[in-house]
Amino acid sequence: PAVHFLRRTKELLEEQQYQVDTVHFALKTETALARMEYCCGLFERSISRADAIIKNARTDKEKVEAMHLKVKCLIQQRKPVSSLEVAMEGLTSFGVTYPRKFVKYQINRLFTKCKALLKNLSDEDVLNLPIAKEDRDQMASDSLSWIGEIALAFNGLDDHLTYCMLVALEISIEKGRISMTGQALAAWGGLLAEQGLIEEAYRYGKLAMEVADERYGGSLDDRVASLYYSWIHHLRHPYKEGVEPFSKTLKLMWGRG
Q1: Angle of helix 219-227 versus helix 239-255 axis, rounded to 10
Q2: Are 83 and 150 in contact (CB under 8 A)?
Q3: Using an 8 Å Cβ cutoff, are 220 and 236 in contact?
Q4: What angle is formed at CA 167 by the lines to CA 253 and CA 227, rounded to 5 degrees?
Q5: Which of 67, 113, 197, 205 is the most buried (most CB within 10 A)?
Q6: Phi and psi at residue 177, in whole multiples of 5°?
Q7: In whole angstroms, what is the distance from residue 7 CA to residue 103 CA?
Q8: Rounded to whole angstroms, how far apart are CA atoms 80 and 72?
Q9: With 90 as the cut, is the pLDDT of residue 206 above it?
Q10: Which helix (H) or strand (E) holds 12?
């Protein structure tokens, strides 16, 4: 029924859809309809509408919402390359360069840079990082989170997951906190654990949880907890102590879709 009513609304707006006096309402209607069609499994229709929104969007927020919807449709269609292309396009439009090849080499370079940036920062410094002032940085964070979604949906994209987390950490230190700062700190802890730096890994895992606790209530914060309990908590505690909180976190994530 929702799709039917939204389609009828769109028909009534059709002749003047993108004229100045109706453009905001038209884009809102188109976005809502694209979402409903996505939920109904009508992915091609949803992608077509998302493309129209991206073309006619007046604000970055409108564009980001449409691009994310397109990424989600392409994930459901099992198209990792196409979904990555959309996410990379989003990053580029917000001033972040993302490598299309030799990602592993770029990971080594960025890991070294982040290590240098964090070297002289205390726990208090990390927790008191200012909020990023530029909207473009927050929008870039959204695009980075899409790459994380894509990497988790398909096998063989671990390097992309690592790289997007490092980029998020770099932005957080240089420009201020973004929505992915907590995840980036947890991922940093995971990378340090792989190198056997257990104390430092646990330290950054706890910092990640503190960042998430400060703004808890969203799916990104649930992801911080899932990373912490799957990668870091057991470095200091018995595995069994992390099972219940990890299960609760997964239930929260499933509940949020």
Answers
A1: 160
A2: yes
A3: no
A4: 30
A5: 205
A6: -60, 140
A7: 42
A8: 10
A9: yes
A10: helix 2-13
CA distance 43 to 100: 26
pLDDT for position 174: 95
Kindly report the average pLDDT of the chain as a whole number. Answer: 87
Which of 184, 54, 193, 11 lies closest to 110 in space, CA to CA?
184
Residue found by looking up tokens 């453009």 in the block:
23
This prediction has a pTM of 0.84
The count of other CB atoms within 10 Å of the CB of residue 112 is 10
3-state secondary structure string across 179-222: CCHHHHHHHHHHHHHHCCCHHHHHHHHHHHHHHHHHCCCCHHHH
Type of residue found at 245: P
CA proximity to 54, closest of 37, 39, 34: 34
Question: From CA 134, how far away is CA 147, in angstroms rounded?
Answer: 21
- Beta bridge mates, 147: none
pLDDT tier, 6 (very low <50, low <70, confident <90, very high otherwise): low
Percent of the residues in the chain that have a pLDDT greater than 70, as a whole number: 87
Tens digits of residue pLDDT in 80-139 = 999 999 999 999 988 888 888 888 889 999 999 999 999 999 999 999 999 999 888 989
In contact, 190 and 207? CB cutoff 8 Å: no
Instruction: Judge whether 165 and 187 are in contact, CB under 8 Å.
Output: yes
Q: CA-to-CA distance for 164 and 129, rounded, in angstroms?
A: 20
